[in-house]
Amino acid sequence: MAIITRQAYEYGSSPLIFLQSDRSLGAALHALFSEHRAYFLDSVKLGEEAPAACMPLANWSQPETFLPLTHLYSDHLYRDHPHTPREAKPLQSLWAQWYFGLIVPPMMMALLLEPRALDCSPEHFHIEFHETGRPACYWLDVREDEDARYLSARQRIDRMIQRHLLPVVQGIEQHGDINAKLIWNNTGYLMHWFLSELKPFLDEDTLVSLEHALFFSRELLNGTDNPLYRTMIPRDGAMQRRSCCQRYRIPDVQRCGDCTLKCA
């Protein structure tokens, strides 16, 4: 199976279940990240006790917590422009980019390169927030999703979408200042980029299968609408994001280098 290609190469022909039976999943993921993306460990803490101020989705998504956080973030972004009207949509778009940008690549690497599957349920992810109100660090109660151990790469990523990404997007969207479509467009762009980062570790068939499932399949495996469908589209001979993330509407925040909007 493509998921265990890297480990099989490193550890030889002996079955991984015996070679890794004495290692915790948290330790295995720490080693994986340390070797290939050490910076993940700056914002993802594995199996460590979370500080008291950290919160799971069920807490931080509540209005009494989420709205003060985004207001604090707004104060930070507009600090040099006190008289500029504030726009909640691009602000929350950028806030959500912090959330998904910090945690989606580590989850993808964990699910695609480690034989045991990380349980991605939001209740196991406690977030520490930066002094400016944005997500800053994730403290994971590392648990194995035993039902996913023998799933394919596509099934694992589909499970991550359904069990983690969908509830978080709903938790952000429910406050009414941003629509889910914009968040999914941003997240699709992120996931497509990180798939390209995983090319050295995954075979071509797996990469093609994942790209098709994420961006060209109308439905998830349970038959519901795929929120990532056509968030990345073929354009000018390459896969490009479908729409702008709106961050440029915030003072002193420049457009992305590949912004879909044409400069005048």
UniProtKB/TrEMBL annotation:
GO molecular function: 2 iron, 2 sulfur cluster binding; catalytic activity
Domain Ferric siderophore reductase C-terminal, residue spans: 241-261
InterPro entries referenced in this protein's UniProt entry, alphabetically: Fe_iron_reduct, FhuF_C, IucA/IucC-like_C
Domain Aerobactin siderophore biosynthesis IucA/IucC-like C-terminal: start-end pairs: 93-237
Cited Pfam families: FhuF, FhuF_C
Descriptive protein name: Iron reductase
Source species of the chain: Winslowiella iniecta
